[in-house]
Design goal:
By secondary structure, the chain is of the alpha/beta class. It is built from 16 helices and 15 strands. The longest helix has 25 residues.
Length: 430
């Protein structure tokens, strides 16, 4: 992959991408891979953009036609070291020449090394590996229910979660998530799940009881609109869990692994959970998830109570170990906060010109630019216009433009991406 910093001719690179795409489709026995093929062969759960990315390096992506994009989306907070980071490529290549899969009949070196490192950077003493954030959350919820049944009895089963929360797409996790649009229409839901307003201490105090098994929350709501908890709310949740012998589960699938400038977001809140889920950027793009907890709680997940065929896969764990090694460095975490400042400054300048945002929410490199009253419902319009200018962004609902770029994105790439966002918004105001 040519390095942008080496100044290769963009036209030559675009030609190379097109040739490689042609060679790939010939090898597949397909005349040409185009966006239309998605409609022909894929279950229509998604509506992907027309462009098909084929190569990435750092915070840059190229599509089939050699068109270059600055990536402010990061695969939805996944590509924490950008695309094809050398540490990840080397780890995958090295492990790929050793062993790929064993199943949980036995353990493996990458899984053990990674688990040890996760306990070193967090409160946790024990780790369970899965393949995704939803599976990590599923394990967290099952552990909470199992602990409550073992220690307090079957009647202690209520799980409190929060409106607009998001915890995955399994039937249990999507039910605990506070967005009915994702959980309705599939028949009877798992029971004893209560949703309360986020950041509403009075509502929580009024409802929680000794029947409550656990409270599950994001320490910064992502899909729900990039909503940070108040310090008072976060501390009160912990206090009420302690008072009612309930467990506190932090869903750090999106906020974890350096995203907020701390390795885990709870470390910036001064509130420690009993169980934590992590995924997305844990593998930097290679699928992996994990549930972290204490030794005391882990004892309730005895042999046979839970499992995962691919959980702890050597390839995934080797890549994730490389990611943890890079992200946990103090300079990486400090760099996240420096880049947050650059984003906020750039978005403020854009807003001075176009008066489009009412505020910028979030922390670190999990940021949401909230559209003002004149721009209500047009977040996707901004996303599409940005794509046309060569910039990849996200949305968090219809009124928030979301940014979750690489944690090591360069200052030059931030400036170039913000210039493209400026052009995109200009095109919408024309």
């Amino acid at each position: 992959m040519p390095s942008v910093d080496e100044g290769q001719n963009a036209e030559l690179f675009a030609g190379r991408v097109k040739r490689e795409c042609a060679m790939t489709t010939e090898n597949l026995g397909v005349e040409k891979v185009e966006r239309g093929l998605f409609n022909e062969v894929m279950v229509p759960c998604y509506n992907p953009m027309e462009m098909i990315p084929v190569k990435g390096e750092g915070a840059r992506v190229w599509d089939q036609n050699g068109q270059e994009y600055i990536d402010f989306a990061g695969g939805i907070a996944v590509s924490c070291l950008g695309h094809c980071h050398p540490a990840m490529v080397n780890a995958l290549t090295e492990q790929g020449n050793k062993i790929w899969h064993l199943s949980n009949v036995m353990t493996n070196e990458p899984a053990l090394r990674l688990a040890k490192k996760l306990t070193q950077v967090s409160f946790a003493e024990k780790v369970f590996f899965a393949n995704s954030g939803a599976e990590a959350n599923e394990a967290a919820l099952k552990l909470a229910r199992r602990w409550a049944a073992d220690v307090h009895g079957e009647e202690k089963s209520e799980i409190i979660a929060f409106q607009q929360g998001f915890h995955g797409r399994t039937f249990f996790t999507v039910t605990v998530g506070g967005q009915a649009a994702y959980s309705d229409g599939f028949g009877p839901k798992p029971g004893d799940v209560t949703h309360l307003p986020y950041n509403d201490i009075e509502a929580l105090e009024a409802h929680i009881s000794d029947r409550t098994c656990a409270i599950m929350m994001e320490p910064l709501q992502g899909e729900g609109g990039i909503i940070s908890p108040t310090d008072e709310f976060a501390k009160k949740v912990r206090e009420l869990c302690d008072k009612h012998n309930a467990l506190l589960i932090f869903d750090e699938v999106q906020t974890g692994n350096g995203r907020t400038g701390e390795f885990y977001a709870y470390q910036g809140l001064g509130v420690t959970p009993d169980i934590l889920s992590t995924a997305k950027s844990l593998g930097g793009g290679f699928p992996i998830g994990a549930m972290l907890t204490t030794s005391t709680l882990a004892e309730h997940m005895k042999v046979g109570t839970h499992g995962s065929t691919y959980g702890g896969n050597p390839l995934a764990c080797a890549v994730a170990e490389a990611v943890v090694d890079v992200v946990s460095q103090p300079e990486t975490l400090a760099g996240v906060k420096e880049r947050e400042a650059l984003f906020r400054q750039g978005l403020a300048k854009i807003n001075d010109k176009y008066q489009i945002f009412s505020e910028v929410r979030g922390k670190g490199l999990l940021l949401g630019a909230v559209l003002n009253e004149q721009w209500q419902g047009r977040a996707r319009d901004v996303l599409v216009a940005a794509g046309q200018q060569g910039l990849m962004v996200l949305v968090a609902g219809v009124n928030v433009v979301r940014f979750t770029p690489s944690l090591v994105i360069t200052e030059q790439e931030i400036e170039q991406g913000l210039a493209k966002l400026d052009a995109a918004i200009a095109s919408l105001t024309a």
